[in-house]
Amino acid sequence: MAASFETARQVREATEQTYKYGFVTDIESETAPKGLNEDIVRFISQKKGEPEWLLEWRLKAYRRWLSMPEPRWTKLRFPQIDYQDAYYYSAPKQAARPKSLDEVDPELLRTYEKLGIPLREQEVLAGVAVDAVFDSVSVATTFKGKLEEQGIVFCSISEAIQTHPDLVRKYLGSVVPPGDNKHACLNSAVFTDGSFVYIPKGVRCPMELSTYFRINAANTGQFERTLIIADEGSYVSYLEGCTAPMRDEHQLHAAVVELIALDDAEIKYSTVQNWYPGDAEGRGGIYNFVTKRGACRGRNSKISWTQVETGSAITWKYPSCILQGDNSVGEFYSVAITNNYQQADTGTKMIHIGRNTRSRIISKGISAGRAQQTYRGLVRISPKATGARNHTQCDSLLIGDSCGAHTVPYIESRNRSAIVEHEATTSKISDDQLFYCRQRGISEEDAVALVVNGFCREVLQQLPMEFAVEAQKLVGISLEGSVG
Amino acid sequence: MLEIRNLHATVDGKPILKGVDLTLDAGEVHAIMGPNGSGKSTLAYVLTGRDGYEVSEGEVLFRGRDLLAMTPEERAAEGVFLAFQYPVEIPGVPNTTFLREALNAVRRHRSLPALDPMEFMKLARTKLKALHMNDQLLKRPVNVGFSGGEKKRNEILQMALLEPALAILDETDSGLDIDALKVVAEGVNALRAPERATLVITHYQRLLDYIVPDRVHVLAHGRIVRSGGKELAQELERTGYAAFTGEAA
Ligand SMILES: Nc1ncnc2c1ncn2[C@@H]1O[C@H](COP(=O)(O)OP(=O)(O)O)[C@@H](O)[C@H]1O
Ligand SMILES: [Mg+2]
Q: Which of A192, A420, B160, B221 could bond to B127 as cystine, CB 3.0-4.6 Å?
């Protein structure tokens, strides 16, 4: 555990800038013309050689999007987004999709190395397969062969559309329909890539699957789409990480993630979100408008979301679970850190439909600087969900006097046998704790990192080992300059 | 080692220390006694640099250097340790993590290599054993759910690990049974060395049966009103503080 604090310091000492992922890769890209219209949608679909049904699906979403209102029910404050002032497709130029890593542009491999995500198999983290998405497209997927031996499909969604069209067609949009909300609708029209996972019946995926998203090009939106299907009795643990260069303008990231767990299947989905948060004055940073939802379709299925949200100028996301199958379980573990001028409106929805469905929510929100953060959570118990249970624990920690934390729980229970519990606390990081640490020789910044890591412990413990240390470091780094 | 000269300090604008003079030489153990509210903890906090404890006059030299100019963490790294009267809880942070982080911060300052978790555990176990403490203490979050006695023992464990040049113990004896008291005393006595010094703040004479001080000072109304040898503690025990607080008024 403590190793992380050492490393956090080393990271800090090694970099001038707080955001160490802020570099730009100099690479030739193929880009669609600026702006958004039906031709752009057609362009993207054609670039990917998509079947007709998918183009129609995209166009339908696009037309619907035109008339949909922006979600305005949050506490988030930001100017109207000019959708015509962005690029919707940007791909590093390479002859064809590389068949092996030897064909991947070395500049790209170096980029991922710099990000701490080596893609060459002999160097990769043991037991972690990686799909690397650069701007709009997937550039490499590791360990594919090894996974295929067990019938596991782990590839970019563009590839899956070609190789597993039936699975894609059956499940795409089945959890998050295009018309769900404006951001999801835009994604449906213009999504460019993302990851696809299928775990066959009874297979326990032998390694962590991970996607690493990188926005590089300027003025480019990233619209990735992830689809994970866990067939009966299977298990998979999946992790996504993301970073972007430092830029003065805001960039839009509107992703959709759909999870489907069939009978007795379990999906564990972890996110370490570290998009560029903007500078200390609130210039630049990613608008992270993400729709993530999992359907526990089968009996005894389980979906567990763990998120560590430290980046982005604005975060808008509510990873949710639809608990359809009897005895299914939904979990949401969240750490959200907002510093400087960052804003986050995040939480979850637990929709209990099946009998004896259970959900657990642990949310840890940390606000510093002038940041504003809202936990927004819905627990809905439908009439048939006899024996449903929910427990929600929602803790906020404030650092300084200029930030804010808000908790907005919605509880709708239509079954009298259900038990729904909600606990919430708000506290300030205490001078007593900081002084106690400092009296032992720990610097003020390390003391903040230590106390906050302690505050988040229950959530960080949910992360796969390989990423827990990384996440702990991030906690410290993202709170730099928040005291003193 | 430590030279306090005419030290005045205020808390919330209220004068608490009103001219404290005290010289503590290396190898010595001094006791500071005084009634509740006389400013003992305030003195400890001023020496360790806590925010809100403003020095309005006077100076403090630690090994010839201006102690008051240093940040709290610098003072700690230079070897000033405070065993808190009320140790602080840090939920979710295992005691081992905290202790190792502290030890490595201090080691870094002294240009010593950091200890990895294995090395640290080995060292911590040795210290625990010497102090007759239970391993469980290391795994639990810092002071969370600790009994009063466990919290105080934990302070002594930290002191034993950090091996400070100057240890200040703020009423580490209050509320302890006789066994725990002996542990505290053993911890302090084990650190007695020609290059170290200890300031034992206490309300009762009892602890001084086990930690025999070289000097005893009585603090009342923000000033040291009397100093003497170890027999002064016994005298206080007999007469109570009233006589001294009267003198100070
Ligand atoms: N944080 C504080 N805020 C206000 N007054 C304080 C604070 N700390 C101490 N005091 C006051 O300073 C005086 C000395 O307190 P303290 O140093 O704790 O005494 P002792 O440790 O000798 O019992 C008391 O009158 C106490 O009320
Ligand atoms: Mg006191």
A: B160
- Under 8 Å between Cβ of A281 and A307: no
pLDDT tops 90 at residue B170: yes
What confidence score (pLDDT) does residue A39 get? 92
* pLDDT tens digits along B29-40: 999 999 889 999
> In A279-417, where do the E strands start and end?
285-296, 302-309, 314-317, 320-323, 329-338, 343-352, 358-367, 372-381, 389-398, 404-413
Helix (H) or strand (E) holding A218: none
Q: B207: which DSSP letter?
A: G
Rounded Cα gap, residues B167 and B188, in angstroms:
9
Task: Mention every residue, 6+ apart, whose C-beta is less than 8 A from residue A149.
Answer: none
Angle, helices A3-14/A465-478, rounded to nearest 10 degrees: 50
The mean pLDDT of chain A is 85
Q: DSSP letter for A122, please.
A: T
A residues 82..101 contacting B (CB < 8 A) = none
Give which of A160, A175, A107, A208 is closest to A463, Cα–Cα.
Answer: A208
Pairing of strands B166-170, A285-296: unpaired
Residue B228 in contact with ligand 1 by CB distance below 6 A: no
Tell me how far apart the alpha carbons of residues A234 and A204 are, in angstroms, rounded to a whole number.
5
User: What DSSP state is assigned to residue A392?
Assistant: E
First to last CA, chain B: 30
Rounded alpha-carbon distances, angstroms, from residue B200 to A72, B1, B227:
61, 15, 14
- State the DSSP code for B208: G
Q: How far is CA A377 from its chain centroid?
A: 17
Q: How would residue A332 be classed by pLDDT, with cut points 50, 70 and 90?
A: very high
Instruction: Write the DSSP symbol of residue B138.
Output: H
Interface touch B88/A457, C-beta < 8 Å: no
CA torsion through residues A129, A133, A138, A140, sign: negative
CA B14 to ligand 1 center in whole angstroms: 10
User: Around Cβ B122, how many Cβ atoms within 10 Å?
Assistant: 10
Nearest CA-CA partner of B169 in B139, B195, B191: B191
Q: What is the dihedral of CA A88, A93, A97, A102, to 10 degrees?
A: -140
Mean pLDDT of chain B: 91
Hey, what are B244's tokens?
């001294």
Task: Say yes or no: CB of residue B39 within 6 Å of ligand 1.
Answer: yes
Compute the Cα dihedral for B149, B155, B161, B163 and give only its sign: negative
Cα–Cα distance for residue pair B168/B83, rounded to 1 Å: 6
Chain segment A370-427, per-residue pLDDT in tens: 888 999 999 999 999 999 999 999 999 999 888 999 999 999 999 999 999 999 999 8
Which single residue is written with the structure tokens 């567990």? Answer: A304
CA-nearest of B221, B234, B218 to B15 is: B221
Residue linked to tokens 């709708």: A412
Residue A120 has pLDDT above 70, yes or no: no
Packed helices B148-162 and B117-130: angle between N→C axes, nearest 10 degrees: 120
The answer to whether A442 faces chain B, any CB pair under 8 Å, is yes
Distances (CA, A) of A327 to A201, A236, A355, A358, A393: 19, 19, 6, 7, 21
Q: Please list, in sequence order, all residues whose beta carbon lies within 8 angstroms of the beta carbon of residue A140, skipping any fewer than 6 positions away.
A: A98, A101, A104, A108, A109, A112, A119, A130, A131, A132
Residue recorded with tokens 């460019």: A192
Q: Which residue's structure tokens are 């526990």?
A: A296
Residues of chain B found within 8 Å of residue A446, distances taken between Cβ atoms: 101, 105
Residue B23 in contact with residue B13, Cβ under 8 Å?
Answer: no
pLDDT tens digits for range A73-118: 787 888 888 888 888 887 766 655 556 666 667 776 676 666 666 6
What is the SS3 assignment for A52? helix
